[in-house]
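User: I'm curious whether this sequence folds into something compact or stays loose and floppy. Could you predict its structure so I can see for myself?
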Amino acid sequence: MSPRLAALAGACPTQFTVIGLLFSVGLFFSVFEAEFGWSRTVLSACTALAFFMMGLLAMLGGRLSDRFGPRRVLAATGLGYGLGFVLMSQVAQPWQLLLIFGTLIGAGLATHDVVTLSTVARWYEGRRGLMTAVVKVGTAAGQVAVPPLVALLIAGLD
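Assistant: Here's the prediction. I'll summarize afterward.
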């Protein structure tokens, strides 16, 4: 597989997974409410912090990608993002959720879009618009496909 095609083939599932899981977060609200009695205000604050961190750290993610390469940056932040979701299973206090979801997952969110889109744009200079649109198809597909799968997994745990 050519490096150009590998960049494109890696960017689509990255967008699918990261954004799909992000759009599934609301499904966990009722689980946290039932388990811990936490308010939606607390849960929404965690989501808001994650989005804030995403915006705050996006430029840093882009700079790191330019310096160390997209593969290393996505690998490191992808591990952090995934670890954040694993650690959420151990959360017992609101501050833990705020720390894990708001910062660790938020930091993982900061790089996925910047790094994947800039990498694909670099490899497809003559067709940047089309190829970045192809990557964003992964985003849209993740928004549609992942939340129902997460809902099935949550229902299966009851």
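Summary: The chain has a mean pLDDT of 91. Residues 94-123 form the longest helix (30 residues).
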